[in-house]
Amino acid sequence: MTKNTKLLNWVSEVAALCQPDNIHWCDGSQREADELCALMVKNGTFKPIPARPGSFWCRSHAGDVARVEDRTFICSQDKDDAGPTNNWCEPAEMKAKLHGLFKGAMKGRTLYVIPFSMGPIGSHIAHIGVELTDSPYVVVNMRIMTRIGAKVLTELGAHGAFVACLHSVGAPLAPGQTDVAWPCNPDHKYIVHFPEEHTIWSFGSGYGGNALLGKKCFSLRIASCMARDGGWLAEHMLILGLTNPQGQKIYIAAAFPSACGKTNLAMLTPTIPGWKAECIGDDIAWMKFHSDGRLYAINPEAGFFGVAPGTSLHSNPNAIHTVARNSIFTNVAFDEAKGDVWWEEMTAQSPAKLTSWLGEEWAPGTGKKAAHPNARYTAPAEQCPVIDPAWQDPNGVPISAILFGGRRPTTVPLVFEALSWQHGTFLGSQQSSETTAAQAGAVGVARRDPMAMLPFCGYHMGDYFAHWLKIGKTPGAKLPKIFYVNWFRKSADGRWLWPGFGENARVLKWIFERCAGTGKAVQTAIGWLPTPDALDISGLKVSNADLAELLSVDKAKWLAEIPAIREHFAKFGAKLPKGLVAELDALEKRLKA
Ligand code: OXD
Ligand code: MN
C-alpha cells in the first residue's frame, strides 16, 4: 500500500461518492490479471482464444465502439484556454453534473485502484497517474498499455504527484441484479479533463481511449498542457529507429491522424536491402530536451491498442506476430472452427462462418462487416518482433526527423522537407486528412487536423502552435528536421500512385540521407523535394510518369489550398501566431512567383 496521503484521501472520497461494494488496489501481478480474466470469462465479457495463448475475445455494447469526441470536454477555468477545437464547460458546473452521475455509480461493483507510469518507471521524461475504475476490462488493458502496480506506488512515494483519473462505466447494479457482458451507460457519456488540476473524469463508456485514461486523456490532452508549462512536447506520434547498411542509426517521430497507417509505419519491414527499422512506439511521443540540445523521446505507453481490420501478414506482419499471444481483441469476429479471431483483410479469403462482433452468425456476402471497423487488439509492446532495444531506455532516444502527413488523394507530394522549424510548424498546423472509423461520425471527409492533435490538444491550439514555435527558439537547441509525407496519393483515374507499406522505407531512406547531409533535393515553392534520382526506386514497379506525378508541385492546386488554410487559421483568432501567417503569406508569394 501507499503512504501518499493525497492518493489515500482521493480514493476515500471517490469511494464515498461512488459507493462500490469493494476496493481493490492493483499490484500488477500476473496472478491478479489471471484472476480478473477468469472473472470476466465467468461473467461472459471474455472468451478465451484457443489459438492464442493468454488471449481473450470481447464484444462491446453496439453503442460503445469508438472515442466520443462530441462528449469530450476540456474544462479549463477560462473558456478561451480550451480554444475553438475543444468542447468546454465551466469546471464547477461540470463537476456538479458529474457528481450527480458518479453518485452511487459503482454500486454492486469493485473499485479498482490502478497506479500506472506513463513511460519507463523512474524516467525523468515519464509521469505517474492513478486510475480509479469499476471495470476489470480496463484493469487488464491498462496492465498491457502502461506499467502498473506496486512498483509505481513505490516510485510515487509519500509525496509524489500523479494525474488523477476517475472512470466508471456508469452502470450500477442493484442487489441481486446480474451484470451484462459489456456494462456502459447508453444515455450519458462524459470524457472530461480539468487541465489546471491534472485530473480526468470519464463516465459511461468502457471503450478504448474513453476508458483507458493513460492514453489519449493523460498522454495527450493533460500531458500537452504539462508540456506547454514545462517546455517539452507531448505529441500524437509514432517513434521508429532507422539503421542504414553501415550501421548508423537515427530516430524518427511521425504524426498522422487516426488510422492513417501509423502502426504500419511504426513496425515497417523495409524492402530495401540492408536497411533496418525498429519500433519504439506507434501512437504517442513525449519529447524533452537534453543538455546536448537535442530532443529525446520516450513512448509513454507499454503496449499497442491497434485497429485490427486491415492488419494482415501483407500490411503489417510484425503486428500480426505481436498479437499471437497475451492479447485482448475487442469487436473482432470469432471463428469457432479454428478457435481464433478474424477481421476484414486478415486473410485474403474470409472463413465460411463466423460469429460477428455483434454476436450474430456471419457468412461472406451478407454485406455486413464481421469485425467493427474500429475493432482493436491490445498487445504488449515487448512482443513486437522489431521492438527497438532502446524502447525502455529511461533517457529516451534522440529524434533527428519529425514527419507530418495524412490521407490526401491529390495535391500533396509523396515527401518534402520543410525550409525551417517555423515552416515545419506551419506544415503541421495545416495538416489535413480524410476521416476514418477511429472517430464516431462521417467517414471519408477531409478535415484539417493540425499535428494530428485536433481531438487531443488539451488547450487552445493557437497557443499550441505558439508553443511549437517557442520550442524552435530554445537556446542551444539542435532541432530535428521536419518533413511532410503522403502515402495516399491517387492518379486522376483513382489508382494508388505509391505502393506504401514496406516501400515507404525508400522515403525514409531519403529522409535519413537529408539528416546526414547527403540526400539530394531541389527547392520548390512548398519546400525541399527529392531530385528525380534521389529516391531509391531500384526494383520498384512504379512508372516514371507516376513517380514524376508523386514528386511534382501543382502550383494551381496548392494556390487553391490557400483560402482553405486561411479559413482554418481564422478559427484561432488573435492567438494564431504571426509566424504562421508569415509562412502562409510567403508560401502564397512563392506559388505566385
Ligand atoms: C487512436 C486514435 O486510437 O488516434 O490511436 O484514434
Ligand atoms: Mn492515435
Q: How does this model look, in words?
A:
The protein has 593 residues and is α+β, with helices and mostly antiparallel strands. The protein folds into three domains: 227 residues, Phosphoenolpyruvate Carboxykinase, domain 1; 272 residues, Phosphoenolpyruvate Carboxykinase, domain 3 (Alpha-Beta Complex), CATH 3.90.228.20; 81 residues, Phosphoenolpyruvate Carboxykinase, domain 2. It is 27% helix and 22% strand. The protein contains 16 helices and 30 strands. Strands 11, 12, 13, 14, 15, 16, 24, 25 and 28 form a nine-stranded mixed β-sheet that branches. Strands 1, 4, 5, 6, 7, 8, 9 and 10 form an eight-stranded mixed β-sheet that branches. The chain is globular and about 75 Å long. The model has no long low-confidence stretch (mean pLDDT 96). The structure holds oxalic acid and manganese (II) ion. Oxalic acid binds next to loops.
